[in-house]
């Protein structure tokens, strides 16, 4: 089932997700992480950096694959996801940069970037824990409404809504690229554990539709309902439109401690 965990705030959500990642590393020191970008996963990366330092974890064999990348931004552009991952993840967590992958957003190579990325994920043994944020239009990665549940890594055109949402990271809205390379929903569904995080009231409708709405490509995040091990970590405002809130709280409060998330 899709487990919903309601946390007090983003920092608590970040810590819970970070603990789940570290639990995966306990079983597999060469575990592969699926990285999301945007503002939502930042508390996870902060908590991970702190816990890895405090517990003196060896992360030298940990691999990572980012979900997506803009097409056409220079790789060293501060808003490219390559830069984001280097700045927020690889550096602070102390990962080996050779094991950290981001799709190739070079327009010249975009045509084959998807297939190459799929091959690299497969060669690494697949993703163990996939972090996910959610777009206000229900996108996962950059799988905009209409994306096939079977889709693989490929070039997509961003919706105007997503470009508007992401304009806050750029100097002008026109600077937001039109295209991206993103893992497909089919790629994401192959990860062994999905951790979807959302904080704030602006995400409440998208979360309700993802968890309790019909399974539909019109709301790509509803794909999480197809996954045998998906955990949705939300704060109260992001959870506010869920109909079965009482049940989620009850199930969480009575969960056997050995189960983890
Ligand atoms: N491609 C990313 C998504 O992976 C992310 O989930 C979404 C939400 O971003 P935020 O977490 O900043 O709300 O934004 C971008 O479009």
Automatic annotation (TrEMBL):
Domain Glucosamine/galactosamine-6-phosphate isomerase residue range list: 13-226
Gene3D superfamilies linked: 3.40.50.1360
Catalysed reactions listed for this entry: alpha-D-glucosamine 6-phosphate + H2O = beta-D-fructose 6-phosphate + NH4(+)
Record key words, sorted: Allosteric enzyme, Carbohydrate metabolism, Hydrolase
The EC number(s) this enzyme carries: 3.5.99.6
HAMAP family registered for this protein in UniProt: GlcN6P_deamin (MF_01241)
Known role: Catalyzes the reversible isomerization-deamination of glucosamine 6-phosphate (GlcN6P) to form fructose 6-phosphate (Fru6P) and ammonium ion.
Family, per entry: Belongs to the glucosamine/galactosamine-6-phosphate isomerase family. NagB subfamily.
Protein known as: Glucosamine-6-phosphate deaminase
């Amino acid at each position: 089932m899709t487990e919903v965990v309601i946390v007090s705030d983003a920092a608590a959500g970040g810590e819970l997700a970070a603990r789940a990642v570290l639990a995966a590393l306990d079983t597999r020191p060469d575990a592969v992480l699926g990285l999301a970008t945007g503002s939502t996963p930042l508390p996870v990366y902060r908590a991970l950096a702190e816990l890895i330092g405090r517990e003196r974890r060896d992360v030298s064999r940990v691999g990572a694959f980012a979900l997506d990348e803009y097409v056409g931004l220079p790789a060293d552009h501060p808003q490219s996801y390559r830069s984001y991952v280097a700045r927020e993840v690889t550096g602070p967590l102390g990962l080996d940069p050779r094991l950290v992958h981001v799709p190739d957003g070079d327009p010249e190579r975009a045509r084959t970037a998807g297939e190459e990325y799929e091959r690299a994920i497969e060669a690494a043994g697949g993703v163990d824990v996939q972090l996910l944020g959610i777009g206000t239009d229900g996108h996962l990665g950059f799988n905009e409404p209409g994306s096939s549940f079977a889709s693989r890594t490929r070039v997509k055109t961003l919706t105007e809504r997503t470009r508007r949402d992401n304009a806050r990271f750029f100097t002008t809205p026109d600077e937001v690229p039109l295209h991206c390379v993103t893992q497909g929903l089919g790629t994401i569904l192959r990860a062994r554990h999905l951790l979807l995080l959302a904080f704030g009231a602006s995400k409440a409708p998208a979360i309700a539709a993802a968890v309790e709405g019909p399974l539909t490509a019109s709301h790509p995040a509803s794909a999480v309902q197809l996954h045998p091990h998906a955990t949705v970590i939300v704060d109260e405002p992001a959870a506010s439109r869920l109909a079965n809130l009482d049940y989620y709280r009850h199930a969480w409060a009575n969960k056997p401690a050995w189960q983890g998330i």
